[in-house]
Write a structure and sequence with these properties.
Blueprint: H1 2-37, H2 42-71
Length: about 70
């Protein structure tokens, strides 16, 4: 039972990490596509891409914190 408590946060965060990886790739792909279509908008698109990726990564960190709290590690 103790081993399951140690591994449980990893299984709780895994779907969030997979979803975040997909979302970040989609954000980056869309930004690069926009930069190739309109090079003059490259700076604004790059900034928006970085902010979007940071928000997605923050969601994964929140999931990790909640999983660790539920496991009783924090």
């Amino acid at each position: 039972m103790k081993d399951l408590i140690v591994v449980a946060p990893a299984f709780a965060v895994m779907p969030a990490a997979i979803g975040a990886a997909w979302a970040m790739s989609h954000i980056s792909r869309s930004a690069i596509d926009g930069m190739t279509r309109q090079p003059e908008m490259g700076g604004q698109l790059f900034t928006a891409m970085l902010i979007g990726n940071a928000l997605v990564e923050a969601l994964v960190i929140y999931c990790l914190v909640i999983a660790l709290m539920l496991a009783g590690k924090i």
